[in-house]
Design brief:
The protein is of the alpha+beta class. The protein contains 18 helices and 23 strands.
């Protein structure tokens, strides 16, 4: 646990030092759980968004995109259930005066039990060496099985209590598990209460006539209310999808873990409209498709897992999370939900407008069912960044910090470095830079010794460094250095575009799916 906390601190520090993420309004002591993406962070975030969009929209003939407004008619949120049911179970500690999400306290307790399982596995790995079979050990070891049983028992009880809104039992569970305040160790808790997460605002010129609105807590409803507009104007046939990326807002009382849980965040969602009765088949297909997208980035299959929901939302008949191993443990990265026909029927009821699809093959109208894929862009950013940040020992006994970002996502694809700031080398380096920047985001750096510049680009996640030296003036070749291996080779200036493109082109990465 201490090692995880240490790694997380390094992630926070590196994100600021290298211009990825800043605290919002930092000169005014910041705003809790609100962050700004800095000059490199905005590029990484844009590249993740584009990688998702290319895979989700561009590569599917039957999926289109929209960009719906943040502000929507307030009845939207009544129909969706957010006004009445968009709540978090909160609990206060009477001694520390700190407020926590009751379910998160319980989940964190279970995460500590998972840590004990990991310790048992590592001990066994040491003991048995090359003959160790992890799957067999986990499936048969009495202590590990006991830990799993305890986790399942706790989470099942919590899920059932929350579903019945039995908040007294949620508190009782916290007390039985002797869960204490993470800051003070106090176990002096208040009752558990529900808290609505939507931000309210006003629309209108004067207080007397202003309409009460909400900042949208999710992007999905903008898709649902535009279902017929898109279907008719795009002449879309079932099954088809509508995708969207955009900001959403939740008044998280217990916002924490850097950009993992924020009050202003960005979602990448796709709602896939299907014929009733086929939703389970499409649900399974989209689970597989989305996991393949994640694995295409090469961040390690062992860092992902599915978590199927025991407790389902009011609109779902099946739901699963793709969880990622963050520095603070496995947490939700993306949700895949079979939402039935709840949303379209609810909007049809509240608006009085028919939201059905006429199936020409069956010569009848019906309300489509929906399978949703929803990923937090900020969480994906954190997953990519935290996984990429590594320290490695070199053969000469020194260490280097390297940000091994998937090169398709890296803010800068190459850095161009003149060996010295004289003898015409900067001029040639600028020519190379000006040629490459039509196709790639490239960086120019002439400050400090070239070794220091290499280290700086390693820490910034740049896949290639191109060094212009005196030989370049003679034969028009340069040294190209690879971030991950530190290998260097001599190549012709005319070959640079092809070499870089082979490594950073989204086509190369997405073809793995």
């Amino acid at each position: 646990m201490a090692k995880q906390e240490d790694q997380f601190k390094k992630v926070l520090s590196h994100a600021k030092e290298y211009g990825y993420v800043f605290q919002s309004s930092e000169i005014y002591d910041g705003l809790s759980a609100v962050y700004d993406y800095a000059q490199n962070g905005v590029e990484l975030k844009k590249n993740i968004r584009e990688y998702w969009w290319k895979a989700m929209v561009q590569m599917h003939e039957n999926i289109v995109g929209i960009d719906a407004s943040i502000l929507m008619h307030p009845t939207t949120w009544k129909a969706s259930g957010h006004v009445d049911a968009f709540n978090d179970p909160l609990i206060d500690n009477k001694d520390s005066k700190k407020r926590y999400r009751a379910d998160v306290l319980i989940e964190d307790y279970c995460a500590k039990i998972e840590g004990k399982i990991d310790k048992e596995v590592k001990k066994a790995e040491k003991r048995f060496g090359d003959t160790f079979n992890k799957e067999e050990f986990v499936a048969t070891n009495g202590r590990v099985l006991g830990y799993f049983e305890k986790i399942n028992s706790i989470l099942s009880r919590m899920g059932a209590s929350l579903e019945k809104e039995d908040l007294a039992d949620v508190k009782a569970l916290i007390e039985e598990l002797e869960i204490s305040d993470p800051l003070t160790g106090s176990k002096n808790w208040t009752e558990v209460k529900q808290f609505n997460l939507m931000f309210g605002t006003k629309l209108g010129a004067s207080a007397e006539t202003a309409m009460d609105l909400y900042l949208r807590p999710e992007t999905a409803q903008g898709i649902f209310v535009n279902f017929l507009n898109v279907q008719k104007t795009g002449r879309m046939k079932i099954p088809f999808g509508i995708a969207q990326t955009g900001k959403a807002f939740r008044n998280e009382i217990v916002a924490r873990q850097f950009i993992f849980r924020m009050r202003e965040f960005e979602q990448m969602e796709m709602q896939f409209f299907v014929k009733p009765g086929t939703q389970k088949e499409w649900y399974t297909a989209w689970k597989e498709t989305r996991m393949k997208w994640h694995l295409s980035l090469g961040m390690g299959a062992e860092n992902y897992r599915f978590h199927d929901h025991d407790k389902l939302a009011h609109y779902a008949d099946a739901a699963a999370d793709i969880e990622f191993k963050f520095p603070f443990g496995f947490k939700e990265l993306e949700g895949i939900h079979s939402r039935t026909d709840f949303d379209l029927k609810a909007h049809e009821e509240f608006s009085g407008k028919k939201l059905q699809y006429f199936d020409h093959e069956e010569n009848k109208s019906y309300t489509p069912y929906v399978v949703e894929t929803s990923i937090g862009l900020d969480r994906m950013f954190l997953a990519v960044f935290s996984n990429a940040l590594q320290e490695e020992e070199l053969e000469n006994g020194t260490t280097r910090t390297v940000l091994r970002l998937p090169s398709v996502l890296a803010p800068f694809k190459a850095a161009v470095l003149p060996l010295v700031k004289k003898d015409g080398l900067p001029e040639v380096a600028r020519e190379i830079l000006n040629d490459l920047k039509w196709d790639f985001n490239v960086f120019y750096d002439e400050k400090d010794a070239v070794g220091k510049r290499y280290r700086r680009q390693d820490a910034n996640g740049t896949p290639f460094c191109i060094t212009v030296d005196h030989q370049t003036l003679e034969d028009k070749t340069v040294t190209i250095r690879h971030r991950d291996t530190m290998e260097q080779s001599r190549v012709s200036i005319s070959d640079l575009k092809t070499i870089i493109d082979q490594e950073v082109n989204a086509k190369t990465w997405l073809q793995k799916i």
